[in-house]
Amino acid sequence: MIRIDRIWLATEPMDMRAGTETALARVVAVFGAAQPHCAYLFANKRANRMKVLVHDGFGIWLASRRLNQGRFVWPGNWQGRQMELNPEQLQALVVGLPWQRVGAGAEIRLL
After folding, report:
1. Cα-only R_g, the chain
2. Nearest to 51 by CA among 87, 17, 2
3. Rounded to an integer, what distance in angstroms lies between the CA atom of residue 74 and that of residue 61?
4. pLDDT tens digits, one per residue of 52-77
5. Do the strands 6-10 and 38-43 form a parallel or antiparallel pair, or are they unpaired?
């Protein structure tokens, strides 16, 4: 439906009252630009709400998700202002699972 080639996560919280224009301004501030076919994820301070802004090459999509219980597993800003996720990590993140253990991050390299 909407082609997404890269998924970016902002580590600093965002006010969830932000609309499309405010979220787009935040993407530009954190990531430098809103690239076509990229998704940008933001959470609130409590990490129980998330907004996703997607630039599809023609316009902007803004979606939100709220967990009724628990929190999204969100990295702290000590890891930098942004991180790239793969599709498997995104799937784990949106349901509240520890996404850092999915994909390449789950490799065992030391015995």
Report:
1. 14
2. 17
3. 22
4. 999 999 999 999 999 999 999 988 76
5. parallel
